[in-house]
Amino acid sequence: ANDRAARTARLESLGQLAGGVAHDFNNLLAIILNCAEFVAEEASGQAAEDLARIRDAAQRGRALTSQLLLFAKREPAHGEDVDLNSAVRGAKDLLGRTIGASITLRCTTSGDALPVRTDRGRLDQILLNLVINARDAMPDGGLVEVETDLVDLAEGVAMPLPAGRYAQLTVRDNGVGMSTEVRDRLFEPFFTTKAPQKGTGLGLATVYGIVLDAEGTITVDSTPGVGTTFRILLPLATPPAEAPTGGQLTPAPAQG
Ligand code: ADP
């Protein structure tokens, strides 16, 4: 538990630092972009080409800083529990469009409601990041399976999780897989094996932070040339109907 607390604290301070830097950079990049666009109107030939390059680099910088700001903005989730199954169903179209036509997306949701202690935006971020990574691991197409289940864990089965009921999210691809070197560093902020225009290395660090905030775990199983499976376990929030000594639910008076 100490290790988890230390990791969370480290991620948090890193997030704050990253957020501050990203914010300042964003302002500087806005100036660069504006000026480049302004001057480009009167430029021609080589100068116009160079300005286009400046503009592209500044735009790429902005995409990076907005990712950074997303990473930094994580605060403890408060408020309503959210159903993992609704989140998966709700995100399915977006995920399908994101991975493109050469990859098949299969979503299977469990029959049970799976209320978890986080929020919809965070679940979307988890899904999007994992599915984008799966896509990037399958340049020649393939299959991404997103699956949810209700699991009942006995004590000590999935350390450091206590026994109890969990919502499980599995994202599986049959892509290139990864080496043990990559697997060991996967969740580090800024660790990426992708080309600079494609990866920031913040995707899985963000996912990791969200999962920790929700008191869950994330594990990865990967074989080079075969594929990768990410498995997330999030403690089930107790539905009101099952609360001890509950039963004080009275029908809400009709509105109007
Ligand atoms: P990014 O996607 O920007 O590189 P991530 O933190 O999401 O950052 O991922 C870090 C690295 O982990 C990736 O660059 C890639 O090498 C590896 N990785 C993540 N998901 C997968 C996957 N499904 N299959 C193979 N490698 C993966």
TrEMBL record:
Record localization: Cell membrane
Histidine kinase domain: residues covered: 20-238
Segment forming the signal sequence: none
UniProt-recorded name of the protein: histidine kinase
